[in-house]
């Protein structure tokens, strides 16, 4: 797609590398899910406060936030709290499975959204986009196959080494 459109997808590359780095750091840290989420929240709080301060100084602030109903305000505040639960569950799960599996699973949500967009909402999907999508999934298939093959080899070796020490039945 880069060649077709003639533009390097800097935002996509930044997101891919930053999320991979984030996942690696999360995996290497020896902190519980709750502690990790607390640290992340504390690190992001100053940026959020700076943004709110900047937003408050904008001339359109009152139009955007003061004029909405109290119920909507509480729903927005509650939405922040509700999103903490999936983040916590993700952090717990991420510590229990290999990083490669996390990476693979991260492709599921965008793929499902793509399929919903194409088949339910009839979004256009060009041949170039299909080719890019195909390359991604072929790469994932090759990666998954190699991981599965390596896992089977390790399992066979472990199984054979465990049975060498067992006494033979007469």
Fold and architecture overview:
By secondary structure, the protein is an all-alpha fold. The protein folds into two domains: 1-98, no CATH class; 107-165, no CATH class. It contains eight helices and no strands. The protein has helices at 2-5, 10-28, 33-56, 61-66, 70-96, 99-105, 108-120, 127-164. The longest helix has 38 residues, at 127-164.
Highlighted features:
mainly alpha, 2 domains, 8 helices, single chain, 170 residues
Offer a quick outline of the entry.
Keywords: Membrane, Transmembrane, Transmembrane helix. The protein has helices at 2-5, 10-28, 33-56, 61-66, 70-96, 99-105, 108-120, 127-164.
Task: Please specify the SSE layout and strand pairing.
Layout: H1 2-5, H2 10-28, H3 33-56, H4 61-66, H5 70-96, H6 99-105, H7 108-120, H8 127-164
Tell me the domain tally. Answer: 2
End-to-end CA span = 66 Å
Helix content: over 70%
Structural class: mainly alpha
Major beta sheet summary: none
- Rounded to the nearest angstrom, the radius of gyration is 24 Å
User: What is the average per-residue confidence, as pLDDT, rounded to a whole number?
Assistant: 82
Instruction: Tally the helices.
Output: 8
Unreliable stretches:
none
β-strand percent reads under 5%
Give helix and strand order, one letter per element, not per position: HHHHHHHH
- Strand count: 0
């Amino acid at each position: 797609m880069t060649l077709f459109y003639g533009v390097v997808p800097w935002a996509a590359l930044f997101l891919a590398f930053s999320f991979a780095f984030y996942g690696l750091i999360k995996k290497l840290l020896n902190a519980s899910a709750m502690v990790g989420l607390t640290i992340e929240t504390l690190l992001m709080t100053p940026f959020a406060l700076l943004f709110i301060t900047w937003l408050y100084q904008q001339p359109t602030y009152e139009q955007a936030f003061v004029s909405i109903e109290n119920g909507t305000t509480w729903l927005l505040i509650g939405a922040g709290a509700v999103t903490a639960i999936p983040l916590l569950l993700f952090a717990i799960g991420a510590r229990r499975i290999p990083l490669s599996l996390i990476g693979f699973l991260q492709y599921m949500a965008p793929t499902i959204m793509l399929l919903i967009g194409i088949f339910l909402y009839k979004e256009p999907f060009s041949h170039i986009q299909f080719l890019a999508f195909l390359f991604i999934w072929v790469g994932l298939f090759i990666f998954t196959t190699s991981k599965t093959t390596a896992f089977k080899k390790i399992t066979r070796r472990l199984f054979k080494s465990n049975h060498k020490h067992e006494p033979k039945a007469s």
